[in-house]
């Protein structure tokens, strides 16, 4: 049985966040591509298959919500982790309704990133990543929880 490669796409208009996240993922052994906006991400998903997409919510050319909706319509089954500096119930619900699986703050701890990668390794990661709302905190159950 072969090892599943978790090809990852990091989408963010903030160059520093994009490069930092890509570097962290490479250090964890993942092949990583980056996109500076939603339109570029959609184009990349037309030519390459990803198992994990880390998607910023707010980008000037196309929001992460719109980009997620489009890649889902194209048949993309990657685990999509929406990232934002600000979260609210409304933004969480919007993320879930467009097809994101997980909502995280911009500063994801390495241990949490490893859990997300483990979910992306699964055959149907989006089915296993049931995100829940608890009080004012967005969280996703740990792998195996």
Count of the domains: 1
What helical percentage do the residues reach?
40-55%
Distance N to C terminus: 25 Å
Helix and strand content put the structural class at alpha/beta
Question: How would you describe what is shown here?
Answer:
- The chain is α/β, with parallel strands linked by helices.
- It has one domain (8-137): 3-Layer(aba) Sandwich (Rossmann fold).
- The protein has 6 helices and 7 strands.
- The strands form 2 sheets. Strands 2-1-3-4-5 form a 5-stranded parallel beta sheet, with helices on both faces.
- Helix 4 (89-98) links the parallel strand 4 and strand 5.
- Helix 2 (38-47) packs parallel to helix 3 (64-73).
- The protein is globular and about 30 Å long.
- The model is unreliable at 127-145 (pLDDT under 50).
